[in-house]
Write a structure and sequence with these properties.
single chain, alpha/beta, Rossmann fold, four-stranded mixed beta sheet, three-stranded parallel beta sheet, 7 strands
């Protein structure tokens, strides 16, 4: 593995898993939710120039949703979905560089909790964005064709790069999804372009099939992506051509 200045920012036991900081490099970590939190705890403050945080959407069962990812109505739509806002938002706030942005994708059911916990963690709330999709989900209480994105920041406030961007972001929902909550690359590119510059670092703690990695590669950004499920690590690697690095269990340190 290449030796870079970023490796020196981690404890000695972590350097074997640390990424080379180049725009062509992508690193994934296979870790449990607790290990994700522990990994974030070991990052030094300001190691991220910008942070894009993607939270898998959780939903419930409604009429017409049979066969969808929400059908089980157990608060989970895939195997690894147990970590709470309160467990990781304080750590994300700690490592985020002053004056940087954080985006959290969320549904209506969990929005109130996210608003509360993000304030507790120290974040300020810039705006509530809407991802308008090209498809609708059947419901007895209006057909759902949108998801919400809470736009947070760590003081001081910094304007986005394209101040003409509206709060409603239109992007087609991916067809033939590689992950149940896969987001369109073009949607992620809007946020990355607005909140970072080339060669800066984007962090995604719940990377899924690697959409954000693809967006960062397209826009010449560095990224740290973490994913627990080995299946999706492999899918993301095949999708982007990036290397998989299995992270050692941090709770054994």
């Amino acid at each position: 593995m290449l030796q870079t200045k970023w490796e020196k920012r981690f404890d000695s036991e972590l350097t074997e898993a640390v990424y080379p900081s180049t725009s062509q490099t992508y690193t994934r970590f296979k870790a449990s939710p607790k290990e994700v939190k522990q990994f974030i705890s070991n990052l030094r403050k300001a190691d991220e120039e910008a942070l894009i945080k993607m939270l898998p959407v959780i939903g419930g069962k409604e009429a017409g949703w049979h066969g969808s990812v929400l059908e089980k109505n157990d608060g989970k739509i895939f195997q690894h979905n147990d970590i709470k806002f309160s467990e990781y938002l304080p750590e994300l706030f700690r490592i985020l560089k002053n004056g940087s942005h954080c985006y959290v994708m969320v549904n209506f059911i969990n929005l109130n909790e996210l608003l509360t916990e993000s304030k507790k963690a120290g974040f300020e709330q810039h705006n509530l964005l809407v991802w308008e999709k090209n498809n609708k989900v059947l419901s007895r209480w209006y057909m759902k064709n949108a998801e919400y994105i809470l736009f947070l920041y760590k003081k001081p406030a910094k304007k986005i790069n394209n101040i003409g961007t509206p709060t409603i972001l239109k992007a087609n929902n991916p067809r033939n999804k590689l992950h149940p909550t896969e987001k369109p690359v073009e949607l992620l590119e809007i946020m990355i372009n607005n909140s970072s510059k080339e060669n800066e670092i984007i962090l995604d703690c719940f990377a899924g099939s690697g959409s954000l990695g693809s967006a960062c590669k397209n826009l010449n950004r560095n990224c740290i992506l973490i994913e627990q499920d080995e299946k999706y690590c492999q899918i993301a690697s095949e999708r982007t051509g990036f290397e998989i690095i299995k992270y050692p269990p941090l709770n054994k340190r």
